[in-house]
Amino acid sequence: MEKPFNIIIVGVGGQGLITLNNIIAKAAFNDGYDVKTSELHGLSQREGSVETYIRFGKKVFSPLFVAGKADLVLGLEETEALRAVRFANPKTIFVVNKNFISYDQDILQDSVEKKLNSLIAENLRLIPASETCKKELGKEVVSSIYLLGYCISKKLIPLQAKSVLEAIENIIPEKYLELNKKAFELAENL
Amino acid sequence: MRLRLQAAEFWNSKISEAHFATKLQMGFSFWLFIDRIIYMKKEILLGDEAIVQGALEAGVDFVSGYPGCPSAEIGQGFLDIAKENGIYAEWSANEKVALETAIGASFSGLKSLVNMKSFGLNVCSDSLFPLAYTGTKAPMVIIVADDPSCHSSAQSEQDSRGYAYLSRIPVLEPSDPQEAYEFTKVAYEISEKFNTPVILRITTRVAHQRMPVQFKDIKIENKIFKKGEFIKDYKRFSTMPPRVLEMKKELLEKIEEIKQFSEKSSANEAIAGSSSSGVGIIASGVSYLHAREALEELDLKLPVLRLGFFYPLPVKKIRDFIKPLKKVLIAEEVDPYIEKEIRIIAKDANLKLEIFGKNVLPEIGELNQGKIAFALAKILGIKYENPKNAVLDLPRRHPQICPNCPYWFAFTAIKKSAPEGTIFGGDIGCNMLAGVSPHNIQDYLFSMGSSIGIGHGVIKSTNQKVIAIIGDGTFFHAGIPALINAVYNKSNLLVFVLDNRITAMTGLQQNPGMGKNGMGEEAPMLKIEEIAASCGVKNIKVIDPVNFRELSDLIKDFLNKEGVSVIISRRICALLEKRQSK
To answer: Fewest CB within a 10 Å sphere: which of A56, B92, B201, B378?
Structure first.
C-alpha cells in the first residue's frame, strides 16, 4: 500500500464511534501497519454530529485528511453520511447504516436517502444494519460491528478478518464479546 | 557484596531492574529482590494516555488537575491507577487550587504533574507567575490542552503559548502521542535540571490522536506513596519584596541557560530536503505532521524544521536553517507567535528572506494538510486545487442534553415561569446547552462561574430580572466568590444551581458535592445549600425538578424576593444513573 488508506466514520454522539475507531486502528496495527486516528470528545458527544478519522499504511504523518481524500466513509446514520460527501471523490465507497436519527423536522429520511443515491450512486452501500441486528441478535447497538463485518468480508477495508476479530477480543469487554463477534460474523455471510 | 544490576531492555520480554544481594560461600546462593519490572511495549495510545505513561516513567509522585476537554483523560488516567502505583492524585476544586497543591508537593520534594484545559491556565495564572520566580524544588510538569477550532470549548480560541512570554516558563509542543510521551520525559528532565516548572502544551488533535506508541511499561510491585518533607527556606519560597526582584534576575539568567538546552535538544529537529527552490518550512505541534503530509501530497522534498520547543526557541538552530533559504513558511496554529520571532531572527540571519505565515494560512481554526498544501502552492507558484464537492445546505446537528437528563425539566420550568424580559445567565458545563434549541435560554456565556458575577452586574445596572444558571461542578469551581459578592453587595439575583451530582460534560468526574473524591474514596460531601446559607443567602430551596408545578411556583416566588435567592435543582445525571445501574 503506497498511500495510506483513509476511513472516516460519521454518526451521532453516543453511537459508539470511538469503539469502532479503536477496533479498526488496532486491527491495522495487528496487520503491521502504521496507523493514526483522530476523534473528538466532550461537547460534540452529546447527540451532535461526530466524526473520527482513521488512516493506516506504510507511514502515516497526519491523523487528519481533507476533502476528497476518503477511501471509505462508514456512516452509522444516513444524514451524517450525507454530510460526509465533502470527503468523497468519485472512487470513495460509502457503507451506510439504513438508520435515520431525526433532529430537524424539515429533514426527512426519504429525501436524505434520495440525495445519497443521487450523489454517491453506485458507490453507495445502504445496509439495514440496525434492523438486521435487532431482528437477528436482539440488539441494535452492535450494528456498527455488523457494518465492519460487511466491509471486511467485501474487502472494502484492506485488513484481515483474523486481525479484526483479535482487535474485537482485545477491546470489547468480556460481557459483550460474544454478541459483538456474532454481529461481525453475521455480516460475513451476506 | 551488594550488586545493583541495571537491566537492559528487550522487546516483549520481562526485564527487571533488580537488586541482587549475592553471597559467596562454598557454593552459590543469592536472593533476588525485584522492585521495578519494565516491559518494552508498543501499543496504540491516545495522546493523553501517552502523557500518563511518560510521567509514570519519569517517576511522578503527585498529580492534581481539573477536568476539561481535551485534557480530562490525563487526570482520569492517573486517578485510575494512582493507588497501585503509589501516587497521590486528585481532582482539585479548580485549576488555581490544583497548581497550588502541586507547588506544595514540589516544595516538599515530590515530583508533580498538573493537568488542565486551556482556560485553566487563566484561572491558575495568579500563582503561575510567582512559581516561575521561586522555581520548583522537585520537578513539576504542567499539561495544558488547547482546543483550536473550539470543538469542545466556548469562551475563546485560546493559544496558551502566549503564557510563556508572561510567565517565562519553558513550553514544549509535541505533535503526536509518541512525542507526547517523549516530551513529557524531556519536560521532567528540564524541570529537574533548572528547577523550573515546564508547560507541555497540547492541542485537541494531539490529545485525542491515537497511534502505536513505543514505551516502557513500568510495573512497580507494592509501591506505597512516599511522603516528602517541607524544609523551610524562606529566601527560596517567599516572594516578599525586595527578594522578588532578585528572583526575577535569577529567572532571566535561568532562561538564558535553558536556551542552550533548547539548542541541543532533539525535540527541535531539522529534516533535510532539497532546497533547489529555496523554500523551507518551520512547523510546530500537529502542524508539523500536516506539513509533512502536504509535502508527500505535492511530491516535494523541502527542508522542514520541527520546533518541539516553543519557549525558549533554539535561535541558533533557526538561524542555521533559514540562512540558505529564499522563502520560509511558518506553519503554526492560531496565533503567529513563532512567525513574529522568526521575523526578528531573520533581521540578523537573512535579511532578504521572504517570510510566509498568517498571510497564507488562517489565524482562525486548526490547520490541516490541505491548508498547508494550498499555502505552499501559492509560495512555489504551482497549481493545487482543493477538490470541489457538492455543497449541501444541511443544518448543523447541534449537541443536545441527553434523553432523560434532569435539565430537560429544569430548563422547561425556567423558560415557562420566568416573566418576559428575564435575562438568563449561562455558565460552563452541560448547562450551557440551555442556549440551544429547543430552550434557547442564554443571554450571555463567558467563563466558569461568570453567570453569577455578570448577573450581579446586570442587576445593579438595570431594573431587569436575572436568573444565573450554573452547574454543581462550576459552582464549586468559581461560583462561590461571585455568590459572596452578590450577597455582600445586596443583589436581587436568582441563582439556579443544576445539581446533577457530578461533573458531567467532561466525562463524569467526581466533584466536592458527591461524597467521593477523584480516587473513588469516601470524602466529605459539601452541600451547596449549606454553602449558600453560610454565604449569607436567605432564600434557599432544594427541589427535584420533576416536580414541575412546585418548581415553577418557586421560580416565580424567588424572582420577587429581596436579596439573593438560590434554587438547587437536584437530580442525578442520566448518564451517571445509567452507569450506576450497570
So the answer is: B378
